[in-house]
Write a structure and sequence with these properties.
mainly beta; 10 strands; 215 residues
Amino acid sequence: MKKFKCLVAAMLLACSTVSFAQSDVEAWKGIRFSYDHTFVNVDIDDYDAEDYNGFSVGYEHAFKVAKKVPLFIQTGGSLNFARCSEDFSDEYGKDEYKTTTLGLTIPVNLVYGVKINETLAIKPYTGFYFRVNLMSKTKNEFGPDGDTETEDWSNFDKDEVGEDGQWNRCQVGWQIGATLDISKFNVGIGYALDFNEISEKTKLGIFAVRLGYNF
C-alpha cells in the first residue's frame, strides 16, 4: 500500500513540474471502468483479513472553475462490485467464507489539467468521496467433504454479525491520483482511504487502475 501511495505522489510531483503546461485544457465528461483492489485494515492484534478484488463502472463530469488556470471540479458516480474469499478448511472438512459487496461512490475532486500536445494531457487530482454500501452478503460453506452445509447473511444485520461486525451503510474518505488522456481515451491510477470505520476497528483503502473514454 505504501508503494502505491509513493507511485501516485511521484506522478503528481512530475505533473506539477512540467514547464510546458497550457491553459487550453477543456472540460470533459465520459465513462470510466476500473479494476479495484481493496485493502482491509483491521486494528486487532493477530487478525489478518482478506483483501477484496473487484471492478467499478461509472460516469465522470468535470467543470472548469478558473479562466486562466486549468483547474476543474470533477464529480459523477460509480457502481463498485467487490468480492473476497477466506478459506479455513483442513483435512477434517470445509470452512469457506465468501463475501460479496456492491456500493455507490460519488466523488468531488479538484483536477489540474496539464496539456502536453494536441493528443496528450495529464490530469492529477485529489478530493473527497461519499460511498453508500448498498449490499454486503457473506456465504459460509462448512462441514465434512461430501456433506457440507451452507449459510448466508447480510453484514448489515446486527442480529447476524453482532454489533462489532455490523457494517456501516455510509463511508466518507479522501483520494488522490492522476490520469493520462490519449485523445478521447484515458488511463489512470488512484488511491482512496476511508475516514470512518466500515465496522468495528476496520477501515478500507482502495487502489484502482482505470480506463475511460471522453465524449
